[in-house]
Design brief:
With 222 residues, the protein is α/β, with parallel strands linked by helices. It is 46% helix and 17% strand. It contains seven helices and eight strands. Helix 1 packs across helix 2, helix 2 packs across helix 7 and helix 6 crosses helix 7.
């Protein structure tokens, strides 16, 4: 089932979306899974992928994000509304809000994707498309992007994401992980969203609710 294995950002959107949107996302997921089982589903390319590749290259001083965004929009008019919002949010965060922005640092654009298996609920969380920033030998940042318009990242959603990433990637300290709400140019760390120790339980609760709705809709659609 598709809902058993998703990107972390998709789970965070699904868990915290308003009820009407949440059910629509689940229904779309069911339909995609049915089409896939019938051999007619493909899913298509990752819509945010080209933008995020350019954003990481911009952070590494390899490209100019403003220029690249215009080129991406020229390639596909479907990006005309969303990509400028993502660009502005990313640049706001990168240029204005990084406390380490005036310190020497090294951007590592291609962090290896990992998967977090939550065995008690039979769920796998994919964690990918990150990049890391090395400020010095004892000071790093691991940036994980969230792209959706609705809902914005809340402090609870942020701490769920931070907890899963930090526990899956022990080479980073928990307080080095950041969840970046790209559209809004806001990054959350443990200072902004302190961990409470109940993150795995919360994730399991929200997942079980989503799975119950998924199975109900799947049954309705046959």
């Amino acid at each position: 089932m598709a809902i058993h294995k998703k990107n972390l950002r998709n789970f965070l959107q699904l868990f915290y979306a308003p009820e009407r949107l949440r059910l629509r996302l689940i229904r779309d997921d069911v339909i995609q899974e049915i089409k896939k089982a019938e051999g007619s589903g493909g899913g298509g390319p990752f819509f945010y992928g080209p933008f995020w590749a350019d954003a990481k290259d911009h952070a590494a001083s390899l490209k100019d994000l403003t220029t690249e965004t215009e080129l991406r929009i020229a390639d596909s008019k479907l990006r005309r509304k969303t990509y400028p919002l993502l660009r502005d949010g990313f640049l706001q965060w990168w240029n204005e809000k990084r406390r380490w922005r005036n310190e020497p640092f090294e951007v590592i654009s291609h962090t290896i994707p990992v998967q977090a298996a939550i065995h008690e609920i039979g769920c796998t969380v994919k964690i990918e498309n990150m990049f890391s920033v090395k400020i010095d030998d004892n000071n790093k940042r691991l940036i994980y992007p969230y792209f959706s318009e609705i809902p914005p990242i809340s402090t609870e959603a942020a701490r769920l994401g931070i907890s899963i990433i930090g526990n899956t990637m022990p080479q980073f300290k928990m307080d080095e992980v950041r969840i970046l709400d790209v559209r809004r140019g806001v990054a959350y760390g443990t200072i902004d969203a302190p961990l409470k120790g109940d993150e795995r339980q919360l994730f399991s609760t929200y997942y079980r609710r989503a799975l119950a709705d998924w199975e109900k809709i799947k049954k309705e659609l046959g």
